[in-house]
Amino acid sequence: xxxxxxxxxxxxxxxPKSSKKPEKPVLQVAKIAHNEYxxxxxQRLKVALNDxxxxxxxxxxxxxxxxxxxxxxxxxLRLTHYxxxxxxSLETKETLKIIIVxxxxxxxxxxxxxxxxxxxxxxxxxxxxxxxxxSLQQSNAFESNYTIDEEFFPISTLSPYYNTWKIEALVGxxxxxxxxxxxxxxxxxxxxxxxxxxxxxxxxxxxxQVDEFYDQLQVGKLYEISxxxxxxxxxxxxxxxxxxxxxxxxxxxxIREVLDKDTSNFMAFNFVKISDLFEYEKDxxxxxxxxxxxxxxxxxxxxxxxxxNVNKRSITMIDQSQYQVxxxxxxxxxxxxxxxxxxxxxxxxxVRVGDFQGRNLTLLNDSxxxxxxxxxxxxxxxxxxxxxxxxxxxxxxxxxxxxxxKTLEQVKYEKLGQDDKVDFFLIMATITFIKKGTISYPACxxxxxxxxxxxxxxxxxKCSQSYKEPEHRYILSAILTDFTGNSILTFFNDTADKIxxxxxxELLRLRDEDEDRYHSYFENATCKSYFIKxxxxxxxxxxxNENTYEERSSVRYNAxxxxxxxxxxxxxxxxxxxxDFEEEMFYS
Length: 588
What we know:
CATH 2.40.50.140, eight-stranded mixed beta sheet, five-stranded mixed β-barrel
């Protein structure tokens, strides 16, 4: 393995007497520090890099390299573009060496044992400290052995530790001029989101700089920017921007437009396949590319809580994974993007993942949409669709819960629904039996309450209405089984309709006309597994036995929502759980 790894190269990388960094060193990933402070994916991947003689901390901006989410312990990385920092440790008097990986290549797909040379390795433990907790008060003590070789700094490497820098950035979005008013005065500000091939950052201007830069900075144009202050990002206003820092445009800031330069490949995307959206938690921010197959009409929706009217439009996208997803556009975005997008490819940066109807996406104020971008993914998507896509059926998302799944034994052991309380929980179980006796009740078509037959009419007490025929609604009793036991659940109309796959009124007609088909629907509904969101509540009732009465209680379980198990997604989820457990055991 020593012939693959650049043994001892870390010492050369951090040699203060050297004027040139080693080119394309090969280092091994010895450890991956997972983000313990956020439920979202980290902005930067923190790793320990090994050259066989010593370990050094490495930082890989997730938004700059799409493959960073697939890095595994033991892999070999060839660093094609990197920078290095030396800063005082916040824990000891020693200095802390950091390699910022801007771009890299995987040497191969093998996972190697952690390599050590014959000489004793100088290994120092890497502290799992989130980047946002760095003390900016210590920035004056920072000292770097290197300046950037390139004329421009990558955006992903900007930090308060660098005082002299210049970036070349594309303006992706720009806000309106906004005004604030406090007890001590008023003011104004605006912001833009800047992009380059390594990442993104928000830049904000206040007061006089609003007048100076607002008209100069135009969306879609390229600029050289220098002498702006780098400070901690205010996540209240830039929560979706994948950068812990923000630029503040001041009096000394220099901005110059760059003309006659191709910007088609200037922006870095980390595209997610539509089929992989279940791997992302609700409210995570992602990039996605797809072909628009449907654009809804413009809608005006009233928000009940504020009675304010907002505009909405929905766009349906597909990709090569043969899944489709809906992108929701609100307010001005609903007006800006119309049906002219139909049959065009759109690349979306920084859209939010939602869990409505399984998975959906929302375009935010700082999200970016590019129509028919001149990138390789656009051509690949169009070529695929022209050959295959028009003849394919695309899968819609259904609910796939990532909550804690309880076993049926846990439900009973934890006494859910007892002690005069209502509990909600999630199970994954298989329907093993459905009772065929009473499967429905006659209901009012308006309020769905039970109606009573009087003479030749069906009367609803609540609505004071009479009907010639009732509308039947499901009320099924079924036995659910998992590997720990079984339980009886009640399925009402909306959930029962999903498992029976036939309207109850049609099923009742088959019971009278075609008994074999009637029983076949029950057979088809059994031996299928579902995610089921349940409600547990204790019911109290009176029993009579030989002129004596006794009050009894039992827990009733009702199905609130049902979704079939997607075994591919479930397998990926279990694999991730096992991998996390193995890593936790390894480092414990």
